[in-house]
Input
Amino acid sequence: MNVPAAWYLVLAAVLFGIGAFGVLTRRSALIMFMCIELMLNAVNLTFVTFSRTLSDISGQAIVFFVMVVAAAEVTVGLGIVVAVFRRRSSTSVDELSELKG
Amino acid sequence: MIAGTYAIPGILVFVTSAVLILVGAIGVITLKNPVHSALSLIMTLFGVAVAFIAQEADFLAAVQIIVYAGAIVVLFLFVIMFLGVDRRDHVSVEPLVGQRAFAAVGVVVTVAGLITLMARSHWVTGAMSVSTGGTRLAGADGNVRQLGTAVFTTYLYAFEATAALLIIAVVGAVLLARRERANQEDDQTSQEVSS
Output
């Protein structure tokens, strides 16, 4: 009835790759957070696919917890971005180089 | 040949979700305006929700729409508007020489490795999992009940830990957003006093 799990797994791998490319190349901290969300969603998709393939609800339960952690991460991360922006008037990660040795 | 092997609706749903996911993801990393990136992110999240529904994860699909598209992206948009950074990002400028090429090579190697790993390993054994005692996934009717049972029995401690995590995240976000303003007000008043 359904398409093979491998199709969804390849789709999730490609989505993870796109997110990783965005984290590596974009300079804006906000866009980097969005790319991290892309990578988290790719992993969630993999979990759900394996949950269906192995007929195990644990995969879906873990996706539930990943969503909670993602929400917490975005909340604190955007709080840090706002705090940095107030001090530096920029969200570019290239300009945050005070700790460079 | 493919259409003969698998049912047409399943293929259509997969293609729909794949197009939504990939177009949205490419939009997130290529669009210059952060607001457009956030809207592309909604598209990707919606595609993932479609894939969830196609794979019998109904509750997670609803949570995906409500929490991700409804709360997290709105939070992103709120911060973008609040900071006023919705001007164009300089995507054409490459700060480090050859950074794009190195990133592309690394990503291609990673994805190729993942796909090779999937193609060469035998993860579909047909055996039932141990944690659910060999019961099958409930499908559309009992998905919420089954997931709720798993979360509140097997993963109860993890669930309680997420409660603490959310409280910590809220307190941390409020602290990060408030303390800076208090300092600025202190600075202003001290400057006024000194002047």
Observations:
- The mean pLDDT of chain A is 87.
